[in-house]
């Protein structure tokens, strides 16, 4: 294997294993910042050794072993308190990959979910909770997180550093299993983190791949566990339903060369019917609790409209537009308004929808949001304003960070030029 191929393979392993590694190390050393440093040390060792020895059969277990040895060396060298040394030393047997991959049962027994609840501790600001958890568990870069929240990258970096310092100083316990009021207090941040993890997997902010299926899979798994932990919370079931519906389409979102396939062009016969049935069941559980639908359940209801429609043309776009109207009341957002404009365009035609999109062009939060000119270009094209549509697609491509999405937008712009 060439050095470049080896590095790419190691990076792929890291994306898969890093969150589990950090979670397991946090349980050992009780310090999330130190756990992240130890995980990075293990990665450096892998980058030095694996190009020579080859990638081991169980890379996750190898990384955990390397990190654990590094932790023991660090504790010896720094002469930390005997109690803490013994705490790590008692678990001297090395971890296996099976243990790292163990599923949660009963209460919060999953290291990853425990880490989410730890990093969503109420002593942290809401912004700090989300940024730290996305960095550690979602594997998102500070740049990706900044784009998700439409804020400067240095702001996100400061939030992460501050959050880790706060948890360390407060000695936040990893074993906490929130219940009752404490669970409710943290639930909103935990839901948001899992939601953003899934979104990054569903439509990657940057990079060569348009989707990151493993990240979606991990978010969905955590969402299912959370719905069992909080069975009386409609939004937990709503988020699980939303992810089930979206995950059902993952295999049809990309073509043979990794190119994006838009919703209208997807082969719906290939959508995963089992996941759709699971989504419908979770949405029904959310509704059965007798409370108004929140943001996640409303988005799940929108996704259900797509999942149940035989084709794009037969989709109940009027219902989707109404659901987006309801969503805009409980979660006001320029992005929600943009999605509502798309639904209105599908239900009532592009002319009125284009007016709505043009009104959103003055929104500061959408100035660098590539989907705004992309949606505008689509409406302009449908109205026969081909030259303007091409310019809009070119503007969207210039803003897009994901290579596959950028290429798609450039192809649409080229199609407009050839049609003039």
TrEMBL record:
Residues 23-79 form the RNA polymerase sigma-70 region domain. Residues 186-286 form the DUF6596 domain. Coiled coil: none annotated. InterPro entries: DUF6596, RNA_pol_sigma-70_dom, RNA_pol_sigma70_r2, RNA_pol_sigma70_r4_t2, RNA_pol_sigma_r2, RNA_pol_sigma_r3/r4-like, WH-like_DNA-bd_sf. Residues 116-167 form the RNA polymerase sigma factor 70 region 4 type domain. It holds the Pfam family Sigma70_r4_2. GO terms for biological process: DNA-templated transcription initiation. One of its GO terms (molecular function) is DNA binding. PANTHER family: BLL0085 PROTEIN, BLL6612 PROTEIN-RELATED. NCBIfam families: sigma70-ECF. This is RNA polymerase sigma factor.
């Amino acid at each position: 294997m060439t050095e470049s191929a080896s590095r790419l393979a190691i990076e792929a392993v890291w994306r898969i294993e890093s969150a589990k590694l950090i979670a397991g190390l946090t349980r050992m050393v009780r310090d999330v910042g130190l756990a992240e440093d130890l995980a990075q040390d293990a990665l450096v060792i892998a980058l030095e050794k694996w190009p020579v020895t080859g990638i081991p059969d169980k890379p996750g277990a190898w990384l955990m072993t390397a990190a654990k040895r590094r932790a023991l060396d660090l504790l010896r060298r720094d002469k930390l308190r005997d109690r803490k040394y013994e705490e790590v030393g008692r678990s001297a047997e090395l971890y296996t990959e099976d243990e790292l991959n163990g599923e949660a049962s009963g209460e919060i027994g999953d290291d990853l979910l425990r880490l989410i609840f730890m990093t969503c501790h109420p002593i942290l600001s809401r912004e700090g909770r989300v940024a730290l958890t996305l960095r550690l568990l979602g594997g998102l870069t500070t740049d990706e997180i900044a784009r998700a929240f439409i804020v400067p990258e240095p702001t996100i970096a400061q939030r992460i550093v501050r959050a880790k310092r706060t948890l360390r100083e407060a000695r936040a316990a990893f074993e906490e299993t929130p219940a009752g009021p404490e669970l409710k207090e943290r639930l909103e941040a935990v839901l948001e983190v899992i939601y953003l993890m899934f979104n990054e997997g569903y439509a990657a902010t940057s990079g060569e791949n348009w989707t990151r299926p493993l990240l979606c899979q991990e978010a969905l798994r955590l969402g299912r566990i959370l719905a069992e932990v909080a069975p009386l919370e409609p939004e937990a079931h709503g988020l699980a339903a939303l992810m089930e519906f979206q995950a059902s389409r993952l295999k049809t979102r990309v073509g043979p060369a990794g190119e994006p396939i838009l919703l209208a062009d997807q082969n719906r016969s290939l959508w995963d019917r089992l996941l759709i049935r699971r989504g419908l069941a979770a949405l029904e559980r959310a509704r059965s609790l007798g409370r108004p639908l929140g943001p996640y359940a409303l988005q799940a209801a929108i996704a259900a409209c797509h999942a149940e429609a035989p084709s794009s043309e037969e989709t109940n776009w009027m219902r989707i537009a109404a659901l987006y109207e309801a969503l805009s009341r409980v979660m006001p957002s320029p992005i929600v308004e943009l999605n509502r404009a798309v639904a209105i365009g599908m239900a009532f035609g592009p002319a009125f929808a284009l007016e709505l999109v043009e009104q959103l062009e003055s929104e500061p939060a959408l100035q660098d949001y590539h989907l705004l000119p992309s949606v505008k270009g689509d409406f302009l094209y449908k109205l026969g304003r081909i030259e303007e549509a091409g310019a809009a697609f070119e503007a969207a491509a210039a803003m897009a960070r994901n290579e596959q999405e950028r290429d798609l937008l450039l192809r649409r712009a080229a199609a407009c030029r050839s049609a003039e």
